[in-house]
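Example 3.2
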Amino acid sequence: MIGIIDLQRRRYADAAARLEEAVDRGAAEAALLLHLGQVRYGAGDFEGALEALTDAHEIGRGLRGYHLLRARVEHQSGRAERAYATLAAGLAAFPGDAAMLRDQSEVLASLGLYSTAIERALACRAAAPREVHAWLVLADLLRRAGRRCKAYETLEEARLRFPSDHRTTEHLALCYAEGGRHRSAAHLFEELALSEPGYAFEAADQYRVSGAHRDALRMNRSLTGRPGERLRQRTAILLESGRGDAAASIVSLVEERVLLDDELRVRARITCHLGAQMCRRSGRSASLETGGIVG
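Structure, written as tokens:
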């Protein structure tokens, strides 16, 4: 019992030790072996997990969780074909199980079999249409298979179906960004930043890449508690917008205010040097433009 409590608290090393002691004493019930397989899997001991699961096979094969756990161990230990076979056996015992269909789609994708993987993911979504993860997995497979427009459509519909789940918005923003739709991605990241301010960094970066430097600076100004990252991003925005003099001045001022650690100071000097070069090439004089980056 103590070993199972350790497992629930994710103290995998303690749980493994206690469960192994119980097995050594002869208490090799299938449930105990399944728990041992789970804690070894959690600790990254895939070979040990497979050993425990193999010992529990006769009784475990009638349990849904056994097939899921064994397939995940096999997949993560580089045995994708065996993982697929384990899930196929599980689906024979538990037809239409959404979690098995989802895991099977990911195994197929790892083998490069995207068409079949997408079929399984579609079946998973049909079996569990109210589970947001089923939609996210399908969209990810479509994206990886190069069917980006279908991925957009899937995520856009998921966003409408699950308006309170920020993962749909985040995945759609990332998909837009990867597809070169940087302005659309920036708008979504800005929306996310209203509830989670950390997304302001991604919003600023996507505005920067899209060439919307004014919006990029606006979002950069809203960043709090990340002076080093804020500096690097603001400097990049100013440099890309042709304002190397302002970028160089910001870096110099921040160095004087000792807001950077040693590593960032070195990077700042490099950026300052690049900014100065741009100033000389453009014939512009350096003008101080901190934009609220310090103080």
